[in-house]
């Protein structure tokens, strides 16, 4: 009877007073003892956040807003003073047998003209039969003709109007099989690319979830345990996609921000859950009760998650200093998803663990569970990593030198990194619109890149302005590298003149960039800018590439300094050591540099391009180096903080420095390996996508995480810590005033070199 009564009595859990100043421990304790409130509150928050996004709507960057520097000034002026140009389309008619003038050829062109004249939203239709004649509409060999037309209305609405027009073109083509007909233009390219992009995203989404679940299933040995990290990551991503709509009305977002949120949200959400669950299972195996185990896990791994999350947030915040609207939107999106994933791991995760208890191990894999039970009984920890760490700790100097040499060798190609904007040549060759573009380009080769010069003044029709405009037109016509302006357009309000200046260096971007710098640095200052009160800016493909690169070069020291300085301060305060943050920054920079080297070898030099499925263009997307630095520095800190926290915990518990390093690496090897495998797998999916920038981002991220979790964490980190010994924890006396962050110690931290016993529960050890 007494036993029966005790089952009904619920004792209120008081908690460990030592954790009262530990925010993560207090959050875990509260959530575990108020699990229903925490769980319902979390999912209510996710639903409300997602609904807010749907009701508010996300405001995206318009094309004219997606520029920096002088190009941004020019585009803003064009947007303000000129009506937006409509979407332009080109129909290419080609035949190997017939030429223009043959009835079979001309009748096909007339059929297309007739169909387009009756199609809705088609305006400004021009062809060889127009009043101006065939000039510009017939190729030199006569085997190709083209028709051009605009789509009425706004450019951004053209994709909604293009389908009936394409249908009319295809109908005429089907009735004239003696010729081949292609269509390419603003609307057709945009629609086809949007469709392919959506297909790519669906592929990434549909593959990443089952692959992540599969890896976690084998990591935990139980289906329920595997699902919890995925659940946290998905809910964090959903909430972020909703909430990011709010700041988008102050700072418009890049259209790709959702993909970046998914990429980072899944990575950190799974990581944080792995760290937390692994420690909670370990504490339970050591004999603690459910809530006590959760509180102990929160005080240790939860605290590491909190520190890691703040460090990642700091790194992501670096993008806000870039001055580039795309980077700023990525920074906002990633900061929100990291913050939500961090808060979720400290609140709803312990509540879920408390609610599930032993049910966390349901859906287990019998043979994996038995193997883990056997390993737990033998007090084995770390598996293959134990052997590697032992070898490294026996020969730390040789290991450190060899690992550093390997990383430097991988990173060296990055010194020759070349960045360049993606062109039509970098799009998939199997796209119908790209095939049409290639046909048109061969028949009507574009010999020039154009710079758009924008002249602003209170009165562009004044005598001084007219003289400067005439002088500018004559100067560019008589200067090597330029031709006379193809088009000079005055705004209706008389305040702006737009010049389209051909850069006769052709399609070679390096030459076009040199000519753009000459145009800005010599020709314009000596002509248009001599008029008092005039403002002159230049945009175009080469100009925007120059501005983007120059902006990043100018901002790079600020971004690097901000990220590295704040990371240094956070680690300094957390570990009360001046050596730990310096070493952490050096190791992380090594892994980032190695990732840059891999990118250059694969995408610039073309190593293994057949395996990945792309044709190298000899360059890297301009946004990628800075983006990778910020993302990789933040993500690699996850592992570093987690491992160092465990080492510091053991060291503070009485272990020698060497034993603490051995214990810390071994005891975290399983969870770090599992987290790294998940990240590499998810990032590799992005490396298999169609678009080259996404492919480069996926390969760069997966290579960096692989390098970071192996060479850095398993070799360089223990080797350098072994070499430094107790000096790892050196803090100068003049820094003793720094606050002491309590909460590292855990009652289960061993006081001897012996590794802790694994979980006795089935499937409990990661």
What are the defining features of this structure?
24 helices; disordered N terminus; alpha+beta; 766 residues; disordered C terminus; single chain; four-stranded antiparallel beta sheet
Count of β-strands = 8
End-to-end separation: 40 Å
* Strand proportion: 5-15%
Low-pLDDT runs: 1-11, 376-380, 743-766
Query: In percent, how helical is the residue content?
Result: 55-70%
Q: Strands across the major sheet, in which order?
A: 2-3-1-4
Radius of gyration (CA) equals: 31 Å
Q: What characteristic shape results from the CA principal axes?
A: elongated
Counting DSSP H or I runs of 4 or more residues, the number of helices is 24
Structural class: alpha+beta
Overall mean pLDDT: 85
Biggest sheet overview: 4 strands, antiparallel
Q: Could you please describe the fold and organization of this structure?
A:
By secondary structure, the protein is of the alpha+beta class. Helices cover 61% and strands 7% of the residues. It has helices spanning 2-8, 23-33, 35-56, 69-81, 103-117, 162-174, 186-220, 223-243, 257-285, 290-317, 325-346, 348-356, 366-377, 384-394, 396-411, 432-443, 463-477, 509-523, 541-575, 579-604, 609-612, 624-652, 657-687, 692-724, and strands at residues 87-94, 122-126, 144-151, 180-185, 449-456, 487-490, 496-503, 535-539. It has a 4-stranded antiparallel sheet, sandwiched between helices. Strands 6-7-5-8 form a 4-stranded antiparallel sheet. A hairpin with a 5-residue loop joins strand 6 (487-490) and strand 7. It is elongated and about 90 Å long.
């Amino acid at each position: 009877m007494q036993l029966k009564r005790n089952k009904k009595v619920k004792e209120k859990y008081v908690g460990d007073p030592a954790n009262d100043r530990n925010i993560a421990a207090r959050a875990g304790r509260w959530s575990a003892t108020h699990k229903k409130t925490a769980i319902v509150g979390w999912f209510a928050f996710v639903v409300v956040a997602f609904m807010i996004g749907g009701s508010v709507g996300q405001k995206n960057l318009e094309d004219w807003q997606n520029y920096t520097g002088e190009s941004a000034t020019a585009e803003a002026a064009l947007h303000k003073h000129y009506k937006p140009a409509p979407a332009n389309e080109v129909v290419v008619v080609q035949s190997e047998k017939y030429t223009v003038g043959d009835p079979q050829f001309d009748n096909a062109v007339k059929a297309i003209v007739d169909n387009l004249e009756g199609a809705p939203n088609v305006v400004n239709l021009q062809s060889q039969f127009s009043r101006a004649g065939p000039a510009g509409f017939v190729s030199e060999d006569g085997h190709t003709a083209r028709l051009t037309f605009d789509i009425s209305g706004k450019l951004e609405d053209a994709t909604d109007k293009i389908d009936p027009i394409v249908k009319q073109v295809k109908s005429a083509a089907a009735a004239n099989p003696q010729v081949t007909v292609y269509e390419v233009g603003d609307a057709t390219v945009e629609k086809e690319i949007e469709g392919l992009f959506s297909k790519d995203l669906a592929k990434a989404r549909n593959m990443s979830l089952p692959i992540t679940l599969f890896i976690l299933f084998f990591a935990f040995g139980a289906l329920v345990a595997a699902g919890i990290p995925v659940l946290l990551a998905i809910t964090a991503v959903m909430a972020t996609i909703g909430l990011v709509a709010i700041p988008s009305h102050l700072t418009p977002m890049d259209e790709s921000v959702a993909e970046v949120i998914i990429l980072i949200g899944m990575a950190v959400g799974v990581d944080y859950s792995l760290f937390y669950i692994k420690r909670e299972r370990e504490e339970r195996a050591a004999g603690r009760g459910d809530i006590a185990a959760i509180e102990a896990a929160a005080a240790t791994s939860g605290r590491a998650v909190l520190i890691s999350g703040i460090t990642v947030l700091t790194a992501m915040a670096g993008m806000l200093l870039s001055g580039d609207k795309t980077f700023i939107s990525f920074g906002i999106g990633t900061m929100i998803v990291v913050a939500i994933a961090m808060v979720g791991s400290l609140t709803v995760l312990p509540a879920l663990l408390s609610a599930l208890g032993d049910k966390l191990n349901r859906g287990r894999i019998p043979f994996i569970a038995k193997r883990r039970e056997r390993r737990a009984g033998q007090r084995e920890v770390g598996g293959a990593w134990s052997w590697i760490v032992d070898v490294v700790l026996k020969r730390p100097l040789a290991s450190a030198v060899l690992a550093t040499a390997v990383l430097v060798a991988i990173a060296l190609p990055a010194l020759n990194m070349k960045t360049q904007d993606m062109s039509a040549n970098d799009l998939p060759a199997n796209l119908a619109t790209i095939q049409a573009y290639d046909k048109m380009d061969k028949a009507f080769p574009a010999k020039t890149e154009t710079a758009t010069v924008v002249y602003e003044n209170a009165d562009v029709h004044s005598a001084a302005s007219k003289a400067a405009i005439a002088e500018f037109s004559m100067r560019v016509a008589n200067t090597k590298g330029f031709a006379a302006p193809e088009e000079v357009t005055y705004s209706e309000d008389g305040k702006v003149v737009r010049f389209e200046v051909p850069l006769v260096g052709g399609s070679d971007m390096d030459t076009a960039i040199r000519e753009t710098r000459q145009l800005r640095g010599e020709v314009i200052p000596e002509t248009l800018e001599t008029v008092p009160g005039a403002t002159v800016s230049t945009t175009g493909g080469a100009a925007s590439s120059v501005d983007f690169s120059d902006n990043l070069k100018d901002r790079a020291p600020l971004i690097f300094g901000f990220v590295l300085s704040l990371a240094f301060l956070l680690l300094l305060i957390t570990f009360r050591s001046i050596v730990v943050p310096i070493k952490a920054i050096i190791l992380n920079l090594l892994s980032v540099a190695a990732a840059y080297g891999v990118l250059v070898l694969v995408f610039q030099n073309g190593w293994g391009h057949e395996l990945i499925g792309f044709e190298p263009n000899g360059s890297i997307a301009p946004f990628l180096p800075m983006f990778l630095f910020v993302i990789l520095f933040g993500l690699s800190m996850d592992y570093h903080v987690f491992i160092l926290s465990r080492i510091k915990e053991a060291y503070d518990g009485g272990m020698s420095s060497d034993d603490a390093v051995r214990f810390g690496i071994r005891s975290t090897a399983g969870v770090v390996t599992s987290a790294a495998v998940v990240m590499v797998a998810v990032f590799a999916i992005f490396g298999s996508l169609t678009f080259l920038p996404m492919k480069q981002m996926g390969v760069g991220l997966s290579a960096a995480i692989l390098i970071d979790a192996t060479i850095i964490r398993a070799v360089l980190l223990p080797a350098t810590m072994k070499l430094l010994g107790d000096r790892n924890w050196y803090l100068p006396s003049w820094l003793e005033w720094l606050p002491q962050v309590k909460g590292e110690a855990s009652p289960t931290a061993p006081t001897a070199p012996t590794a802790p016993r694994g979980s006795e529960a089935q499937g409990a050890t990661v």
